[in-house]
Write a structure and sequence with these properties.
Shape: globular
Bound molecules: threonylcarbamoyladenylate, magnesium ion
CATH superfamily of the largest domain: DHBP synthase
Radius of gyration: 19 Å
Number of strands: 15
Oligomer: single chain
Order of helices and strands: EHEEHEHHEEHEHEEEHEEEEHEH
CATH topology of the largest domain: DHBP synthase
Largest sheet: 11 strands, mixed
Length: 334
């Protein structure tokens, strides 16, 4: 059920630029909600220090309140006011920020981020995005901005302003249109605990992080993953990123009434009769595939097909994040 509080707002859409940055800053300062581009996916921003604004954000997304948010900042100085960086976290920040990496760190003393945004944890997720529009807004605003992906909870993440509009129009104040995003999957999340953990594969490949760490990144222990993992990796809700149409993975053929999400060269048995074929990357390029993933899932979801057949995608580099999102899409929504 949509929450009545956020329905019926007039959502303004502005092309990225000085006027949009000024409007975004004003809206955030007034406790409003702003959809804006980052290099990974579009985010839905609210003033991280304003608990009421954060509450509105959860309502607008229809998001379970136990799922904590990422605080976005414009530079390292702002980051250090929020979280404590040990040597390892400092090194990762130095190498990969700005960029598609989120670090989960102990809160700094006097951390201004509202408890509601961190779901009462004593850690905080933080990132400096690389998108010039995001950075302009964050620098102009000055403070931390929490920003989940700008979609209704459980829907596919938005990679264009039109996606944001179709999910959240009437529920948020402003959308800044900065075109199509570059990376296409959400940031990689690393928990900087005693043993660093890969909490979510994402737009920065695991291998790049491991090269800097000089060792392998542990994953979330099996028993801690899933819905019960609220304190450790609460984002790993099983039914995330789900189109409404059933998704069938590792497809080597297309059944009647299905659409095909392809990867690499065709043919796949039955592809000629598929309702629609969209190829994530004909030349088998994982970065191109990541950038196309959510947009193509949205398009195929709109075809009224019986199902979406998805060809296998290799699991290295960005493929790890792509396969993670595809598995979640396949679990479906109950
Ligand atoms: O690329 C991205 O990260 C995008 C753009 C907009 O920046 N944002 C995004 O946010 O994907 P969201 O809210 O969809 O995902 C945030 C993830 C969730 O999985 C959440 O559980 C996890 O971060 N998270 C946040 N705070 C955490 C914490 N203190 N400990 C563990 N996980 C945390
Ligand atoms: Mg999301």
């Amino acid at each position: 059920m949509p929450d009545p509080v956020n329905v019926g707002l007039k959502t303004q859409i502005l092309p990225a630029g000085e006027a949009a940055t000024a409007a975004a800053t004003r809206t955030l300062a007034g406790g409003g909600l702003v959809g804006f581009p980052t290099e990974t996916v579009y985010g839905l921003g609210a003033d991280a220090t304003n608990a009421q604004a954060v509450a509105r954000l959860y309502q607008a997304k229809g998001r379970p309140a136990f799922n904590p948010l990422i605080a976005h900042v414009g530079d390292l100085e702002a980051a250090c006011k929020i979280a404590r960086f040990d040597a390892l976290a400092g090194r990762l920040a130095e190498v990969f920020w700005p960029g598609p990496l989120t670090l989960v760190l102990p809160k700094a003393e006097g951390c201004p981020v509202a408890d509601l945004a961190t779901a009462g944890l004593d850690t905080v997720a933080i990132r400096i995005p690389a998108h010039p529009v995001a950075r302009d807004i964050l620098r102009a605003f000055g403070g931390p901005v929490v920003a989940p992906s700008a979609n209704l909870s459980g829907h596919v993440s938005p990679t264009t302003a039109a996606h944001v509009q179709s999910d959240l129009s009437g529920r948020i104040d402003l959308i800044v249109d900065g075109g199509r995003v570059e990376v296409g999957v959400e940031s990689t999340i690393v928990g900087c605990f005693e043993t660093p953990l890969l909490l979510r594969p994402g737009g920065l490949p695991r291998e790049a992080i491991e090269r800097v760490l000089g060792r392998a990144l542990a994953g979330v222990p099996e028993e801690a993953a899933g819905e019960a993992a609220a304190p450790l990796a609460p984002g790993m809700l099983a039914s995330h990123y789900a189109p409404r149409t059933p998704v069938r993975l590792e497809a080597t053929s297309v059944a009647p009434g299905e659409t095909l999400l392809a990867f690499g060269p065709l043919p796949v048995a039955g592809h000629e009769t598929a309702i629609t074929v969209m190829n994530l990357s004909e030349r088998g390029d994982l970065a191109e595939a990541a950038a196309n993933l959510f947009g193509y899932l949205r398009s195929l979801d709109g075809k009224g097909a019986r199902g979406i057949a998805v060809m296998p995608v290799p699991d290295h580099g960005l493929g790890e994040a792509i396969n993670d999102r595809l598995r979640r899409a396949a679990i479906g929504r109950s």
